[in-house]
Design a protein that fits this description.
Blueprint: E1 2-5, H1 11-26, E2 30-35, H2 40-46, E3 50-52, H3 71-85, E4 89-93, H4 97-106, E5 110-113, H5 136-153, E6 172-175, E7 192-194, H6 206-219, E8 223-227, H7 238-244, E9 251-255, E10 270-273, H8 279-284, E11 287-290, H9 294-302, E12 307-309, H10 316-325, E13 329-331, H11 340-349, H12 351-366, H13 369-382, H14 440-445
Parallel strand pairs: 1-2, 1-4, 2-3, 4-5, 5-6, 6-7, 8-9, 8-11, 9-10, 11-12, 12-13
Length: about 450
Amino acid sequence: MKILLCPLSDGGYLYPAIAAGRELRRRGHDVSVLGRSTAAPVAAEAGLPFAAAEDFGGHRAFSATWWGPTGAAQYRAIVRAAREAGADLLVTSVLCNGALLAAEALDIPVAVVGLSVHLWDYRSGGDDEPHLGRTRRSRTHDCLRLHADLREQAGLAGRASRWGDEPLLGDALLLRGDPELEYPGARLPERVHHVGPLSWEPAPDPAEAEAIGDHLSRSGKPVVYVHLGRFFEGRSLWPRLNEAFTGGRFQAVVEQGRSTDPRPAPDADILLVRKRWMGPLVDRAGLVLSSGTSAPVLAALLRGRPLALSPNGSEQPLLAGACMRAGVAAHFPNNPSGEASALLESAWRDDGLRARAHVLGSRLAAMDGAVRAADVVERVAGASAAPPAGAPSAGAAPVGAAPVGAAPVGAAPVGAAAAFPAEASTAPSAKASVSSKENHEYAISRPR
């Protein structure tokens, strides 16, 4: 089977897809990667053939920052690359509407690699879940609307969706977390599967890792690993970081992630880095302070590290709430409600927090996410036919049920694809009413 990995090229989306792709390649499948040109070294290290999206008209189309307005370009690039590769199946990530539409147009299945928690409506249950950032209904509605707008641009609106009223899931949505992180009593849609963390990252450069280790050793202070996500419309966390790591007993190594405008104070015990890897840095730390994005949260839990979370936007409030509900994270508010260093001290000394993080992390590590993900992908590909268009979904699996298994869905051979007209714009449609710099904040985080 020929499989094209076409997730967003940011590490938090690309690396999990590569983890699944490497396992699929080990099983004998022909796996290649489509992404922005900067991801080429990552694919090379993973041992997977790579095609640059720019060569297929996909400029900016695989960036998490530009995921909304570049959906049309993403669609065109994936259709062209999949045809050239003779792809039988796509593996993409959440927010890749272009990949979903390409799978529809080509009449091939697509597996979607999700985050560590489910973003959209539950099948049932969870009615009393607190609204974290915004309601699930609002988030689901806006994401479906963006998908529908792009579908109309692609000329696919006249035919029933391959996936009925749940197109965002593709043929299978693979969650990288644990059932404990979902709201108690909630039931996931049937095509959603817990597969585990899908942990993979490029190996660190030994000299770089040694230099960071030497710097941290000179201080001798306990290390907190800080991983910053996008700030969206919230306040920068930098004033709180400077407060926490100036004149106190902790030092920090701060991965900027996708944040901008770093502002470490001159006398703060802060080492600012931007690396493609985080594992060795988490290994050095006793606590992980994060905005609450999936990659650093899972990296911390897999190593039994407790979390201090300061969510701002995107999935951050939802995942932070899940971690605090599971008792593996403390809240680190981005306001003067408590002394920052005291909050870190409390989280560091909380043995219960650390023990629960160890238990949950051990369970995640035992899941072998790549194997489970590959199992689901093969089941999706091996099914005989796609579900009837517009057919209602069957009963949902409860949270915590067997994570692997799929309803009959399937793949037809690559066929003719509907294409955007040559003059079609890659900007969002007028209905979407979004700015040219639309990002996660608009569709999955904007408060309601």
